[in-house]
Specification:
411 residues, alpha/beta, three-stranded mixed sheet, 18 helices, 13% strand
């Protein structure tokens, strides 16, 4: 029994090590696609990361505790990872469960510059169409992240008559100083929020705001600190705030090392600061790489293609389209096996030994390991298996073409 336990621990450590290698490979790919992060942003990020300094054992919190915190605070900041639809879905869940009908709630969004508040109101009141709204705010060029990620927030707000507030700093009016305007954007958003409270309080209303803003911005030393300063100056008493981070990498790896990543989904980091863990670090990065490659999956597609059957369906769809275009017979996909980052360790086991240790040569095993470690795409004809690294449309199409080539030529 002890030997079995040791083997289980060793297998877990190997799987964890492989996941970290793939994560680092995705991170390198994202950096290559997006370019080197400027020093000013690195410094800004370093300040934001101070929220995650945990010297002791990570303490979990309940959803009830989190929702209570949101309901009893003036302003709640929710960290947004713009390319990852899970981040926006989690934000909407918090909004749904926190908003109370007997209170005056508002939703703040970074994605809309504040000079377009009237256009935003018109869109929510259905006075203008989605196309007119996007054209007015230059959505594809100014924001550019998948609209389908955010659309449910707009729809829910409209149905429940909750006003959405545009929080972003108007660059065309004030100019942009590049990376160094991060602090100014924090000050602007904090000012907009404070003005809303000032006007509402004078009307005898005490609002509550849930603001979805970029993950780095909602670090304690950034937007919350600016809100504290500005609201104290204007209102004579600072507004209370809560920050909810999402899917922080270091927290996940720390919990995974303790074999607790499946047991904890809400962490209380310190007073007023929480982190929700609703996904894996690599899924978040995969969304960024997919977006940077110029491939924007439909809402929820990142979840759907996270399971092997849907991978196979997508490969078959692309493959059949290619085959028809080229006038080739449709390939048979029945025996094809699909592996992704979620079960990469299983493919490693098959490649290293499996039921037939002599199936692969030493060079072939090293080749398979290399492609998995660096999150690359590979088709292995001996076991009719495809490994999909980053689940982008381009990657799926590429493997479909490779499979057709192998099926038709045998090379």
């Amino acid at each position: 029994m002890y030997t079995t336990l040791v083997d289980s621990v060793n297998a877990r450590q190997k799987a964890l090590g492989l996941q970290k290698k793939i994560f680092n490979s995705l991170k390198a790919e994202a950096n290559q696609l997006l370019g080197k992060m400027p020093d000013t942003i690195r410094k800004y990020e370093k300040e934001s990361q101070k929220d995650f300094r945990t010297s002791s054992r990570i303490c979990n919190a309940t959803k009830h505790q989190l929702i209570q915190e949101v309901q009893t605070t003036d302003v709640t900041f929710i960290a947004d990872f713009h390319t990852f639809d899970q981040a926006q879905r989690t934000a909407l869940r918090i909004i749904r469960e926190s908003v109370q009908t007997d209170q005056h709630w508002l939703i703040g969004l970074e994605m809309v510059p504040s000079q377009f508040q009237k256009k935003l109101d018109d869109f929510q009141e259905e006075k203008i169409s989605l196309e007119e709204f996007h054209e007015a705010i230059s959505y594809p060029t100014v924001w550019g992240f998948p609209w389908q990620n955010y659309a449910p927030i707009f729809e829910w707000s409209r149905e429940n008559q909750i006003r959405i507030i545009a929080l972003n700093r108007p660059s065309p009016l004030f100019g942009s100083t590049g990376e160094s305007d991060l602090d100014q954007r924090d000050q602007w958003a904090a000012g907009i929020i404070t003005d809303l409270f000032h006007d509402s309080i004078h009307k005898g209303i005490r609002p509550k705001i849930i603001a979805l803003y970029g993950g780095l911005h909602v670090g304690t030393r950034h937007l919350p600190q600016q809100l504290h300063k500005i609201s104290k100056s204007l209102l004579k008493k600072s507004l209370s705030w809560t920050t909810i981070h999402q899917n922080q990498d270091r927290l996940y790896w720390k919990l995974a090392q303790e074999n607790r990543e499946l047991d904890i989904d809400i962490v209380k980091l310190k007073k007023n600061v929480y982190c929700i863990l609703s996904s894996t670090p690599w899924a978040k990065l995969q969304s960024l790489v997919t977006w940077a490659e110029g491939s924007h999956p439909e809402a929820g597609e990142m979840d759907r293609i996270d399971n092997d059957l849907d991978y196979l369906f997508l490969i078959q769809t692309y493959g059949n389209t290619l085959a028809k275009f080229l006038g080739l017979p449709l390939p048979n996909y029945e025996e094809m096996n699909i592996y992704s980052i979620t079960n990469a360790d299983q493919l490693e086991i098959i490649a290293n030994s499996g039921t037939n240790p002599s199936l692969f040569t030493s060079i072939e095993r090293k080749l398979i390991h290399y492609h998995i470690q660096f999150n690359l795409r590979i088709y292995i004809p001996k076991i009719k298996a495809a490994y999909l690294g980053s689940p982008s449309q381009n990657g799926i199409a590429e493997l479909s073409a490779i499979y057709i080539l192998k099926s038709m030529t045998g090379c």
